[in-house]
Amino acid sequence: QVQLVESGGGSVQAGGSLRLSCAASGRTFSTNSMGWFRQAPGKEREFVAAIRWNGGTTYYADSVKGRFTISRDNAKNTVYLQMNSLNPEDTAVYYCAVDQDRNIVGYVSARSYDYDYWGQGTQVTVAS
Fold first, then answer.
1. For the chain, how long is the longest CA-to-CA vector?
2. DSSP bridge pairs for 15
3. What does the pLDDT look like over 32-45, one tens digit per residue?
4. Which one, of 96, 128, 112, 85, lies nearest residue 8 by Cα?
5. What pLDDT digit, counting tens, does each position of 45-100 carry?
6. Of 5, 41, 68, 76, which cross-links 64 as Cys (Cβ 3.0–4.6 Å)?
7. Lowest-confidence range among 1-10, 17-26, 87-96, 101-110?
8. Which of 65, 72, 88, 92 is nearest to 31 (CA)?
9. Is there a contact between 8 and 123 (Cβ–Cβ < 8 Å)?
10. Is residue 86 within 8 Å of 97, Cβ to Cβ?
11. Nearest partner of 98 among 52, 60, 57, 66, judged by Cα
């Protein structure tokens, strides 16, 4: 059974940092793209960042570019999201996800419906 478990969320002051982790189990995802999405109260789920299986391609939402960094450790079947310079608009539940179908050089998807496996989410709260 495939399982994605996020961790590292919490409460932080504006300007602070957090590092989210997403550990996958049940199968290896070393050849799949992985992504982070978030959903704030009353809003739709939105794309945050994605990384191709070999780490060679990354893609970020404009709202987090330059502040967030996605990385992965295939040996640990884990993807990370380093979040710096957090602001209250970053408050949301953060989800990791796996795209098991696409393997296109230079491309990762920002569309939630392209992702097949999802974690349960971890809450990030940024106080002003």
1. 40
2. none
3. 899 999 999 999 99
4. 96
5. 999 999 998 888 999 999 999 999 999 999 999 999 999 999 999 999 999 999 98
6. 68
7. 101-110
8. 72
9. no
10. no
11. 52
Write the CB contacts of 88 (distance below 8 Å, at least 6 apart in sequence). Answer: 14, 126, 127, 128
CA dihedral sign of residues 120, 125, 126, 128: positive
**Alpha carbon 32 to chain centroid distance?**
14
Query: Phi and psi for 97 in degrees, rounded to 5?
Result: -155, 160
pLDDT band at 125 (very low <50, low <70, confident <90, very high): very high
CA 21 to chain centre: 8
Q: Dihedral of the CA atoms 122, 51, 86, 93 (nearest 10)?
A: -20
Q: Do 78 and 72 contact (CB within 8 A), yes or no?
A: yes
Q: How far apart are CA 13 and CA 10, in angstroms?
A: 10
Q: Residue 108 and residue 53: Cα distance in Å, rounded?
A: 9
